[in-house]
Amino acid sequence: MSAPDDERRVEPFDDDLEILPDITGDERGTGWGESAFDSDDTARLLEERPPHWG
């Protein structure tokens, strides 16, 4: 027979264990196909500027 939950011993929980990450891979630039070494996006943004921006 099992003991009631009030009498059951529970071991301390390890709070340092990361179950789910704070930021997932698809929230980072590399998840969208960007290079990990691209720190300055100015040239890319100017190249991909829509035609109606002149």
TrEMBL record:
It comes from the Bacteria. This is Uncharacterized protein. It comes from Spinactinospora alkalitolerans. Residues 1-12, 41-54 have a biased composition (Basic and acidic residues). Residues 1-54 are annotated as: Disordered.
